[in-house]
């Protein structure tokens, strides 16, 4: 079953990638994660392989009887190829560390990829939900429902409940970057205990003006306070971006339009293109579409391109291993084809 | 009449710009010029204004009775605006010097712009013919016909017949530039007494891999020898370019295709663009079309864009004066519109 579940991910974009959520012009997705550990088994780092196997079988069994995860698949790391694991990491479904994990571990994946359970990462369970757009509450409610359902089947250790929540919002802030206000905004974010990361997560460089804002620590805060704090601060950042967009539209409309359309022209015509260049160009086009001055492209297609053009995704889509040079050609073809497709009806505006 | 003749040039591209001549993939146009002076009047530099006026009236009268120039117009410099003169200079119909000429001088323009007579530049008459593509003989025959017709009505001074012929071929050599063989080729050209200039003529920088190859001096050579020498050497240069194209197509097909299509994507999407950038991008697209790997554009449209996007041309087309910033926007719009037009049926292949 594992390979079928994974191939479904390849052929069909995740639900959160197929719809435009609230504030889609500013926010790509919202993600909430809860870490849990089983009460009677040592933490993953100190657990024996046998104990880790027990964790896997208990968690999988609990997941299968959870209504929220019903019909899902368990992908055991040991049964996946290196490429499959890279694919899951690119989709943010498993961590980079888990790509090279050799002990019993895996990913339980609900239909539609809305909720997932990483098994035997640093914690026994990491429950994650992702939704399109800026909707922390919805993601938070969803992950809590999964947690409650699993809680009835598993016995969680609650001694360290605080600090087990991570929420993050994946935002697009081109105007703050262009108006050079981004440094100040990022400094403000870290001063209130939140973290900002680049496109690919921890330690990654800033690409395409995409940022992940997340809570850095939940110590001293309840889970509700953590969620509310992230929500409030992110909203302030988004408001700053909206103000900067208005200024740019007023003062540099033509330059922005030119930049946006040139990016679209390159994206829709290149025959060889790197993943980084795609991110930067998609960022510019996405900006134009969000401003309402852009070319005829929709945010959902652009968001999907960010995910689909990563190396393992390309190779899964192409159903073969590819060198970097081959990927650069395949990527350019994929981008051209996707941009040429008729646009789906836009979702409800935010 | 003068303004009508000039406006016709604005609205309708010249015949040589509307057709694809022989070797259109390598050569944009061929130009032959003959200088003549009237026997009984001092050279322009030493002539009195009254004498220059006499030259104008005699030459115009002779032109009007010349079958080759029949139906043409005389554009008196004194009656033209600064913009109109710039326009004629951009079209290579008058020299840069003539733009600021305050004494009696002008341009006689045959219908279709195939033959022109510049009056009172350094010489009393400079007869010029331009043809599309690489066809020196045709241009040479045409200018000789005009010269013979005028010779029957005017008395030319023939004491210095040698040195009064200038022929030039406007070539596109992207492969020699890309393969870094261009320096060697240019050195070879100047060693056999020919000159190479950039896009805009004397002293201009090399833009878009376009070059003008011309005879530097005709001293010691008959007019026929001059023509034959230019033809022979240019043919060798074109053969070197064709060989380099074959090599590139074999060894760097994908990179060339990528470069060509990116250039097309930018040209067809930019909202603000400089004249220099248009030349460089048109060069890349023209290269792709010439190689048969290019986007759906035709050489004639691309050649026209090189001419039409120059500053005075834009202002004549837009029927108003424009700042540089306004021109950059108008230019981008013009380029997009022209590239989006349906392509004319291609002319006979060379």
Any idea what the shape of chain A is? globular
Low-confidence stretches of chain A: 345-350
The top level CATH class name of the largest domain in chain A: Alpha Beta
Compute the CA-based radius of gyration of chain A: 20 Å
The name of the CATH topology of the largest domain in chain A is: Creatine Kinase, Chain A, domain 2
Oligomer: homodimer
Overall strand count of chain A: 8
Query: CATH homologous superfamily of the largest domain in chain A - what is it?
Result: Glutamine synthetase/guanido kinase, catalytic domain
Helical segment tally of chain A? 14
Report the mean per-residue pLDDT of chain A as an integer. Answer: 89
Q: Report, as a whole number of angstroms, the end-to-end distance of chain A.
A: 38 Å
Name the beta content range of chain A: 5-15%
Domains counted in the coordinates of chain A: how many? 3
The topology string of helices and strands of chain A comes to HHEHEHHEEEHEHHEEHHHHHH
CATH hierarchy: architecture of the largest domain in chain A: 2-Layer Sandwich
Helix percent band of chain A = 40-55%
């Amino acid at each position: 079953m594992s390979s079928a579940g994974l191939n479904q991910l390849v052929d069909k974009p995740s639900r959160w990638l197929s719809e435009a959520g609230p504030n889609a012009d500013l926010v790509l997705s919202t993600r909430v994660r809860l870490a849990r550990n089983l009460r009677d088994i040592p933490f993953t780092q100190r657990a024996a392989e046998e104990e880790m196997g027990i964790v896997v079988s208990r968690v999988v069994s609990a997941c299968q009887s959870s209504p929220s995860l019903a019909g899902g698949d368990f992908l055991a790391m040991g049964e996946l190829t290196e490429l499959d694991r890279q694919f899951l990491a690119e989709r943010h479904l498993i961590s980079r560390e888990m790509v090279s994990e050799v002990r019993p571990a895996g990913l339980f994946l609900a239909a539609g990829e809305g909720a997932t359970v990483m098994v035997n990462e640093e914690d026994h369970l990491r429950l994650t939900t992702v939704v399109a757009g800026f909707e922390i509450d919805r993601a938070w409610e969803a992950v809590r429902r999964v947690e409650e359902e699993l809680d009835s089947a598993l016995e969680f250790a609650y001694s360290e409940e605080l600090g087990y929540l991570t929420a993050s919002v994946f935002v697009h802030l081109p105007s703050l970057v262009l108006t050079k206000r981004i440094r100040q905004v990022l400094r403000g974010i870290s001063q209130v205990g939140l973290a900002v990361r680049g496109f690919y997560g921890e330690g990654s460089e800033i690409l395409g003006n995409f940022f992940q804002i997340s809570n850095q620590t939940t110590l001293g805060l309840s889970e509700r306070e953590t969620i509310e704090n992230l929500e409030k601060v992110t909203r302030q950042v988004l408001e700053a971006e909206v103000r900067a967009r208005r200024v740019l539209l007023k003062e540099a409309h033509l330059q922005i339009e030119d930049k946006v359309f040139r990016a679209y022209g390159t994206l829709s015509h290149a025959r060889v293109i790197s993943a980084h260049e795609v991110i930067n160009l998609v960022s510019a086009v996405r900006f134009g579409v969000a401003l309402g001055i852009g070319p005829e492209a929709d945010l959902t297609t652009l968001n999907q391109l960010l995910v689909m053009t990563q190396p393992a995704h390309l190779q899964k889509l192409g159903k073969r291993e590819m060198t970097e040079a081959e990927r650069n050609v395949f990527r350019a073809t994929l981008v051209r084809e996707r941009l040429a497709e008729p646009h789906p009806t836009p979702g409800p505006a935010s």
